[in-house]
Write a structure and sequence with these properties.
By secondary structure, this protein is α/β, with parallel strands linked by helices. It is 40% helix and 21% strand.
Length: 228
């Protein structure tokens, strides 16, 4: 038997929905508050999302078990939505530090498994859920998350938890890829993975972006030395 909400409940739900900002407005607001932490003024495009989740698609037909997918910094859920279409039976875990965006994700995707905290808690979150290796780790984290030793440790943890046949995708904006933080990020990924591919520029994203797809995780501490 289906119970319809009362007029009062429906009115309350509609009011809450009107008060909740859209993904674009939420990004604009959070960028104005903390530009280094948010790093973008608008959510990622569908074209960029397609590249970020692409490693799941070729293996979908031959996979025996639902894939385990981790999303670092899902923001307002552009990549999350694409993942749910591509792999509806996946075991998903998201990690979002921004409280406003975490609230938005929970409202947009009821029942989502979301850790409200930094990506540095990846190992603990996986252990708490009894998850071993991960098939795909996608990251929408800004450069700030990869600064210093903490950033290198994060990429090391990503490699440590990725399945041998898995993939790690990270996007960066094409106009800033050659800046010192952009070059540092590329070196970090290369230090912990045997193969790193660079996508063509996604011009349909604002700003235009590229995607690093890293495979062949290395199971050792290979922190780059100073000056490299």
């Amino acid at each position: 038997m289906t119970t319809r909400p009362s007029p009062t409940e429906a009115s309350t739900s509609a009011a809450i929905s009107r008060r909740r900002p859209s993904g674009t407005r939420l990004f604009l607001r959070e960028f104005a508050r903390a530009p280094l932490r948010t790093a973008s003024v608008v959510p990622s495009s569908a074209a960029l999302a397609d590249l970020m989740i692409a490693p799941l698609l070729p293996a979908r037909q031959r996979r025996q078990q639902p894939p385990v997918v981790v999303e670092l910094g899902p923001g307002t859920g552009s990549f999350t939505a694409a993942l749910r279409v591509a792999a509806p039976g996946m075991r998903y875990l998201g990690m979002e530090l921004n409280p406003a965006m975490a609230d938005h994700l929970v409202a947009r995707f009821p029942g989502i498994d979301l850790v409200r905290g930094p990506a540095s808690g990846l190992s603990r979150a996986l252990a708490e859920r009894g998850l071993g290796t991960v098939d795909l780790i996608i990251s929408g984290l800004p450069w700030q998350a990869f600064a210093g030793v903490a950033g290198t440790d994060l990429v090391s943890a990503v490699a440590a938890h990725l399945a041998p046949s898995g993939a790690y995708t990270q996007f960066t904006y094409s106009f800033s890829r050659w800046t010192p933080p952009g070059r540092r990020q590329h070196r970090q990924i290369q230090s912990f993975f045997g193969h790193v591919a660079l996508s063509p520029v996604v011009w349909r994203n604002l700003p235009p972006a590229v995607v690093y797809t890293a495979r062949g995780p290395r199971r050792f501490d290979a922190r780059p030395t100073a000056g490299r």
